[in-house]
Specification:
- The chain is an alpha/beta fold and 451 residues long.
- The chain has 2 domains: 48-203 and 267-450, Alkaline Phosphatase, subunit A (3-Layer(aba) Sandwich); 207-259.
- The chain has helices spanning 10-26, 29-44, 78-81, 102-105, 124-133, 145-153, 212-225, 227-231, 236-253, 255-258, 267-273, 277-291, 309-333, 403-414, and strands spanning 54-60, 88-89, 96-97, 111-117, 166-169, 189-190, 295-300, 340-345, 349-350, 366-367, 371-376, 384-386, 388-389, 396-398, 421-423, 429-431.
Length: 451
């Protein structure tokens, strides 16, 4: 299988060579042969390597309930299911999902459900960091998947679009540094604003309360009155400033800024997605991928339902179901699903057993022992389920999946070798995903079953 080659510095090459020599001297010929055979076998199972060009991560901030969404357990009874005790069949025989997801039930052939995800962390900060990076907190602050993709598929390798290669709508995740030790160059551009408002006023790109024509008029007036700048136009410093200003105007007034404007989308598309904040974010994410942005995260909060869980789900699940199904189907109809990974996840699941007592009144707490994710497109097969939990969705009983397994699989489908390395500020060479399970986490390896 042909792997993409990445430029490495002489210094990094020498460090890698020294490390390889040290390893070679301490590993027996038998062990090296076994490792080589294992690696060859793993690569042979990855026919989708490099098929994807981009990722849309739908981050359900706070942690959605696995038992109410993709891992229903109706036989567990009312104390576990509450009013959601009637899961529905999908368009794939044998796959059943929560009753509040009828639109996703119609397109299960286009996505796979990961029911064996587990990291056993119940704190938002640790779970978020772990789910986004594949790492437990430790010596280094590792970059999240979006920052790694930004490095391997962004400006370092020739990305030249006006819009940055890593976009977050609308606010950063907030509980860790997304770029980690890679630094500010690989941080996401957070749009700010409210996608439910048309036009969507992207901070730094779309000026609040000023339409495009008025902005262009302002530019012309400024240029006409800037006699000092015109007189010193050949100055080196002013040339640099003028170039930066031109780039900024192109971003605000050119085609790049129009990517965030969904007012021209056909009415049937708007209806298919819905017109709420999350729906518009998903639609804008599709437009950003069309433009060429390799990684887009939609942060969608409200899932931390310690109290009044079912009231919140009654409000949130219908628009969530509609928008995710619309995004998957829209990408499919446009011929973009094969090259776009859709990754739906929160930082953990929620307690299967419901807390009926006051003050929770039907709430669910944090649950990292077992939860679900959804992956679609970009080399991932549809119509599959990976992993299984017990009869109450409390523990994984079949095919453990770690966050690192998922992230490594996403990298592989993007053509980024999961064995690739990064160099820390301390000049240590580290892998982009762990080569062995993090402490306390069980790994089942890359998702070769669906790749």
């Amino acid at each position: 299988m042909k792997m993409k080659t990445k430029h490495i510095s002489r210094r990094l090459f020498l460090k890698d060579a020294a490390l390889a020599a040290a390893v070679a001297s301490s590993v027996s010929l038998f062990d090296r042969s076994a490792i080589a055979a294992q690696e060859a076998s793993a690569k042979a199972k990855l026919p989708s390597f490099g098929k994807a060009k981009s990722v849309i991560q739908l981050w359900l901030w706070g942690g959605p309930s696995q038992i109410d969404t993709f891992d229903p357990k109706p036989a567990a009874g009312y104390d576990y299911c509450g009013p959601y005790s009637a899961p529905i069949n999908t368009n794939v025989d044998g796959i059943v999902i929560g009753q509040m997801l009828p639109e996703l039930a119609k397109c299960a052939d286009k996505y796979s459900v990961l029911r064996g995800v587990s990291h056993k962390q119940n704190a938002h900060e640790t779970a978020s960091y772990l789910t986004q990076t594949g790492r437990m907190p430790g010596r280094y602050v590792y970059p999240c998947a979006g920052a790694v993709v930004s490095k391997f598929m962004g400006v370092d390798v020739g990305y030249s679009k006006m819009i940055p290669p890593y976009i977050v709508m609308t606010q950063p995740q907030g509980r860790f540094s997304e770029s980690g030790f890679l630094g500010a160059r690989y941080k996401p551009f957070a749009t700010g604003g409210d996608p439910a408002r048309i036009p969507f006023e992207v901070e730094g790109i779309v000026a609040r309360g000023i339409d495009r024509d008025r902005q262009e008029t302002r530019r012309k007036i400024l240029e006409a009155t800037n006699t000092f700048g015109a007189a010193l136009a050949d100055s080196g410093y002013l040339k640099q400033g003028a170039a930066a200003q031109e780039q900024a105007y192109n971003l605000v007034l050119g085609d790049s800024g129009k990517v965030f404007d969904i007012s021209g989308e056909p009415d049937e598309i708007r209806k298919m997605y819905g017109r709420d904040r999350f729906a518009n974010s998903c639609l804008i994410a599709r437009r950003l991928i069309e433009y060429g942005v390799p990684y887009v995260t939609v942060n969608y909060g409200g899932w931390d339902t310690h109290k009044g869980h079912f009231e919140a789900m009654g409000r949130m699940l219908p628009p969530t179901d509609r928008a995710i199904a619309a995004l998957i189907n829209d990408l499919g109809k446009r011929g973009m699903l094969d090259s776009t990974i859709v990754w739906v996840t929160g930082e953990f699941g929620r307690t299967p057993k419901i807390s009926w007592e006051p003050p929770y009144c039907g709430g669910r707490g944090h649950w990292g022992d077992a939860f679900s994710m959804l992956v679609a497109g970009g080399g991932f097969k549809g119509g599959k389920v990976v992993g299984a939990t017990d009869d109450k969705a409390e523990q994984v009983v079949e095919r453990f999946i770690s966050p690192g397994d998922v992230i490594g699989s996403i990298y592989a489908n993007l053509g980024i070798n999961p064995d690739a390395t990064l160099t820390t500020p301390q000049a240590d060479v580290v892998r982009i995903v762990p080569d062995k399970p993090e402490e306390g986490i069980i790994s089942g390896g890359l998702l070769t079953e669906i790749m």
